[in-house]
Amino acid sequence: MVDEARVAELGQERLDWRFKAVPAGAWGLTVREYLASGPALDGLGTPLLTLDAGALAHNLRTMADWCTTAGVRLAPHGKTTMAPALWQAQLDAGAWGITLANLSQLRVARAFKVARVLIANALLDPAGLGWLAGELDADPGFSCLSWVDSQAAVALMDRALRAAGARRPVEVLVELGGPGGRTGVRDLATALAVARAVAAAPTLRLAGIGGYEGVLAHDAQADSLAAVTRYLERMAELYHRLRADGLLTGRAVLTAGGSAYFDQVAAVLGALPEAEVVLRSGAYLVHDDGFYRGISPLARGAGPVPLRSAMHGWARVISRPEPDLALLDGGKRDLPYDEGLPVPQLVRGRGPVAGTVTAVNDQHAFLRGAAVEVGEVVRLGLSHPCTAFDKWTLIPVLDDAGAAEPRVVDLVRTFF
User: Fold this and answer.
1) What is the CB neighbour count within 10 angstroms for residue 169?
2) Which terminus has fewer CB within 10 Å in the chain: N or C?
3) What residues pair up with 30 in beta bridges, in sequence order?
4) Which pTM does this prediction carry?
5) Residue ending a domain, choose from 248, 282, 316
6) Structural domain boundaries enclosing 164
7) 49 and 82: one domain?
8) Same-domain status, 93 and 220
9) What digits encode the pLDDT tens for the residues 76-129?
10) What is the largest CA-CA distance in the chain?
11) Same domain, 75 and 32
């Protein structure tokens, strides 16, 4: 489901100044040559984002097993990492496909010949639809599902695909939204009208229903979980209506589920007849020490073992201008901060450290209450992998981020 040879070619890319994680001493080497030299974490500069090989393997296996047990499919949201090598690992572990959000991300996927893509968004750009039509016509093994939430969107897609001379219909899902949410129809009557418009468009084929419950809740409180359940029950109601009206026949896709409420998706939608329930969890592979650690269903008893954070930040103390203040050399350009600030975990070579990061600027973090000295390197727990990967084009993978002397065992290439 992905061009493994093309992914393997990433190992032949030459390292140079473009990759801020790579030391100058490695410039000119290929990725494989660099890894063969047995590099250590101590040879890398700061600021730095790293991944943990053991945690990645644990999370990959844990989520794949959970989906198998629950009887649902998984199309991980690839926009989290935009890393074809990680997509390949997810597909090799049994993923149904890869989810993406827009045309530029889809082009990355097609460059690596990902065979099944779910676009969790409306794709209305005429030039982009023309390109997609060409991809579908040229590759019978390629499948792409997009979303629509209005009759106007259906008309725009149909017009663009007709103009492009599309021979294969584009599969679409009617998107159901919710009050105060993002896109998606707000009522079942509109959803049925959109579905009928799709059925009347020869360039489109209705393949099911899509939606995202994560915009309707942001924690695991009882009222939030109830709001998610109500939304999923509306998806189920729409599914039955489309079946009853003959607009959906045979096996159909029913997709929801980020990384926060996928257990509820499986519980509410999993028993629907002839439904291919597809989760789109993206953050599970990397997980975190912040938002997802607190909200993941596997941390709330929905599975036998929790996920583990596979990402860490590393930043050096570059100033102690006040008795209670240390400045680190990592900031907004290097580390995620939108779902919680980095949390100090340990000092390299010395052990656990207390303290609080109270603010971040573009290139600095303000660390207070920590017994650290100028020149020391602090490992940071991070929150929200979706806004961590986009800051790095090449991310070192460590054998064990908790070891006394971590070794670099891989480099993950991203394409944002």
Assistant:
1) 18
2) C
3) 14
4) 0.97
5) 282
6) 71-282
7) no
8) yes
9) 999 999 999 999 999 999 999 999 999 999 999 999 999 999 999 999 999 999
10) 71
11) no
